[in-house]
Specification:
The protein is of the alpha+beta class. The chain has three domains: 108 residues, Butyryl-Coa Dehydrogenase, subunit A, domain 1; 132 residues, Butyryl-CoA Dehydrogenase, subunit A, domain 2; 116 residues, Butyryl-CoA Dehydrogenase, subunit A, domain 3 (Up-down Bundle), CATH 1.20.140.10. It is built from ten helices and eleven strands. The C terminus is likely disordered.
Length: 397
């Protein structure tokens, strides 16, 4: 049964209806095969752009949807109810656009955002290194200043969309002091950029998460976002927004499990859906409160952290209840509740691996499997030499 949503405008109601139709048409038919085979859903993110579901919280003048975060997150939840990994990747892309949209110059926005927001380009990013957790000031990745830009050196752990994205948000040290961290819009392909093998996950397998090795990738001056040495503010903005995206994804996953379980509940298990529904409704209310605070320009760091923690626990509870209610039927291919339970467990482990609740359930850390192979770069994406680039609509990314 579709969630009865309280939305701010008729346009938002129409957007949710379009999202549900897209998800039923494009996601529901592909999710089982892609997750089973760990195969990337080629063409899906272009289709999301054509459907007007890419770049929703960004200005219309640059090709975005002009929607408040309150509405955007409910779109993410609807996508997650059909395919959690894709919803997480949509949020990863949205986060990768945030530094340019919120902290870039007018020239940078004009150059980069149109291609980012219309679905032509896919963004990736990581807010973590193996030792960093949720503290971006501890990064060791370095951007060495040159006469004509920076050379990026270092390792990024748990890079969401790694090896598939056209651009990445990277935070790198640009000075000796702990706060001297800068934000860069880095290319997704370069002959000096290597990727380890994708993480061998037990769930959320269709979208790769990997480790990236930046071995002297040249970054032109216009790729510096914000003032040099002032990237921590941007990083913390991403952390807070990422918590909200993780909460919306987990809530959608929980709702999907609840919807399946509701059709099978009988006898002694009748209390389970009610308990799970209470957890799911609470998680939704918490993340929407945080989103409304964000839209109003009010601090929402605490609320975002609580929202993600509550949503992931709701997903664990709802998926476990669904598995119990369905019993032996849960082991058939017809009902995906076992996959839902594995996905919820991965989300919980990722939060723990990234330094505690709120560090970001999607693209924030491993814990879904064995991880990359011993830090050895085994994959490479080639660009066009140093600063390898992709040109789309007159913008070089």
């Amino acid at each position: 049964m579709p969630v009865d949503r309280l939305l701010p405008t008729d346009e938002a109601h129409d957007l949710i209806a379009r999202t549900r139709a897209f998800a039923d048409r494009e996601l529901a038919s592909r999710v089982a095969g892609c997750e089973a085979d760990a195969s990337y859903p080629t063409g899906l993110f272009t289709a999301l752009g054509r459907a007007g579901l890419s770049g929703l919280p960004y200005p219309v003048r640059y090709g975005g949807g002009g929607q408040p975060y309150e509405v955007y997150l409910q779109v993410v939840e609807e996508l997650a109810a059909r395919w959690a990994a894709v919803a997480g990747a949509v949020d990863t892309h949205t986060l990768a656009c945030l530094p340019t949209a919120a902290h870039g110059t007018d020239a940078q926005r004009e150059q980069w955002l149109p291609g980012m927001l219309d679905g032509a380009l896919t963004g990736g990013g990581s807010r973590s290194e193996p030792h960093v957790g949720a503290d971006p000031s501890a990064v060791t990745c370095r951007a060495e200043r040159t006469r004509a830009g920076h050379l990026l050196q270092g390792t990024q752990f748990a890079l969401a969309h790694g090896g598939r994205a056209h651009f990445h948000t990277v935070f790198a040290r640009t000075g000796p002091a702990r706060p001297d961290v800068s934000c860069f819009l880095a290319p997704g392909a370069d002959e000096y950029l290597y990727f380890a093998a994708p993480e061998e996950a037990t769930a959320l397998r269709a979208i790769p998460t990997t480790t990236a090795y930046w071995d002297g990738v040249y970054l032109e001056p216009e790729r510096l976002i914000g003032a040099p040495g002032r990237g921590l503010r941007i990083a913390f903005d991403l952390l807070d927004a990422g918590r909200l995206g993780g909460a919306a994804c987990a809530t959608g996953l929980a709702q999907a499990a609840l919807d399946v379980a509701g059709a099978f509940v009988t006898g002694a298990d009748r209390h389970l859906p009610a308990e799970a529904a209470a957890a799911v409704d609470s998680a939704r209310a918490i993340y929407l409160d945080a989103a409304r605070r964000r839209d109003a320009g009010i601090s929402y760091t605490r609320q975002a952290s609580v929202a993600e923690s509550a949503a992931v626990e709701a997903a664990v509870k709802a998926t476990a209840a669904a598995v119990r209610i369905l019993g032996a039927v849960a082991d058939t291919d017809e009902f995906p509740v076992r996959r839902y339970a594995r996905e919820a467990a991965v989300l919980r482990r990722r939060i723990a691996a990234a330094g505690g609740a709120g560090a970001g359930a999607f693209g924030a850390g491993g814990g879904g499997g064995t991880g990359a192979a011993a830090g050895v770069p085994v994959g490479r994406r080639h660009g066009s030499g140093r600063g390898g680039a992709l040109s789309v609509r007159g913008s070089v990314v």
